[in-house]
């Protein structure tokens, strides 16, 4: 229990005096005339009514309610004498009288030392029950100070706990955030190395093989099984102008526990391979699948080995795909496919 500074004590006393102002008249009544009827109706006598001034001095301990063991039942004959022997024929009906055994008086209780009820607030007074009663009556200022101390201490400890908890919650929040970021970095980005670009472009121009496919990859841990595809000479309306990039959903081992149709936004990025790493200009296009009925063949759960591909027809202009330029270096290019699974519940 901490010590209270002098100004605090007087402040506390002032405020208590104010709150007791209503009861002040009662405390002025002389003890003799009021005859033990709530002579001191201060807050602490209200709180600790166990030691009431109304109680007779001799029986300080509260009489226990009568228990089964306190009752003795004896059979008495009509004359009031305890019955002996068997039942005589023709004897008058027995009158059963229950005699109550009163609890034995315990005179030692009167002088036994008891603690002041304010012990847990720091009061060390220990005396006979009668003296403690007087102490409660006379030392109310001391007890108020002790209570004030206790409340102040409790307040400090509560504030400390609250601060500690909010610090812990902040730590948990930041740990979750970091975990989510790490999970995204490790699980949902696939970087596809497309080599022999010149040969692939020639084949596409001649219409022999308009599209090249990546190896299968997963959207995230225990996620969708996907494959990327790339049309070096473009696809559909974009042919001869811009290349195209796609993704398709393959049958995967986690399909049973994944949500369908597939709805994760995808980001395709053609990586800038310039030696000046401080000044890179990757080309990124984000695609958010529309889960409408017409798109179900692309986004629904694959019935055969793979769904038809969907993606970005107009990706990067062919004019930007010069060999040993930004994007084609040593006849290779790199396409990153990032699957945004943040809106999806982790399995
Ligand atoms: Zn005390």
Automatic annotation (TrEMBL):
Residues 187-339 form the MATH domain. It holds the Pfam family TRAF-mep_MATH. GO terms for biological process: regulation of canonical NF-kappaB signal transduction. InterPro entries: MATH/TRAF_dom (IPR002083), TRAF-like (IPR008974), TRAF1-6_MATH_dom (IPR049342). This is MATH domain-containing protein. It comes from Steinernema hermaphroditum.
């Amino acid at each position: 229990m901490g010590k209270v500074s002098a100004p605090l004590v007087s402040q506390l006393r002032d405020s208590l005096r104010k709150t007791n102002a209503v009861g002040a008249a009662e405390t002025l009544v002389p003890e003799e005339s009021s005859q033990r009827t709530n002579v001191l109706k201060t807050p602490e006598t209200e709180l600790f009514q166990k030691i009431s001034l109304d109680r007779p001095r001799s029986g300080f301990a509260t009489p226990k309610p009568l228990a089964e063991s306190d009752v003795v039942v004896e059979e008495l004959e009509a004359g009031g004498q305890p019955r002996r022997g068997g039942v005589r024929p023709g004897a008058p009906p027995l009158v059963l009288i229950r005699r109550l055994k009163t609890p034995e008086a315990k005179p030692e209780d009167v002088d036994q030392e008891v603690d002041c009820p304010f012990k847990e607030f720091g009061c060390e007074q220990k005396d006979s029950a009668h003296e403690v009663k007087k102490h409660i009556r006379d030392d109310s200022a001391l007890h108020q100070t002790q209570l004030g101390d206790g409340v102040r201490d409790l307040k400090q400890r509560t504030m400390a706990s609250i601060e500690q908890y909010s610090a812990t919650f902040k730590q948990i929040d930041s740990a979750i955030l970091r975990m989510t970021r790490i999970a995204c970095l490790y699980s949902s980005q696939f970087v596809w190395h497309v080599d022999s670009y010149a040969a692939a472009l020639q084949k596409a121009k001649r219409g022999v093989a308009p599209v090249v496919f990546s190896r299968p990859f997963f959207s995230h841990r225990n996620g969708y099984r996907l494959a990327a595809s790339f049309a070096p000479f473009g696809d559909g309306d974009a042919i001869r102008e811009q290349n195209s990039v796609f993704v398709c959903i393959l049958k995967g081992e986690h399909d049973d526990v994944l949500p369908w149709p597939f709805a994760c936004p995808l980001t395709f990025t053609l990586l800038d391979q310039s030696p000046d790493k401080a000044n890179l200009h990757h080309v990124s296009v984000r695609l958010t699948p529309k889960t409408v009925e017409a798109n179900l063949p692309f986004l629904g759960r694959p019935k055969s080995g793979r769904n038809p591909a969907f993606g970005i027809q107009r990706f990067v202009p062919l004019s930007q795909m010069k060999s040993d330029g930004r994007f084609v270096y040593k006849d290779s290019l790199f396409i990153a496919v990032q699957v945004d699974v943040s809106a999806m519940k982790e399995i």
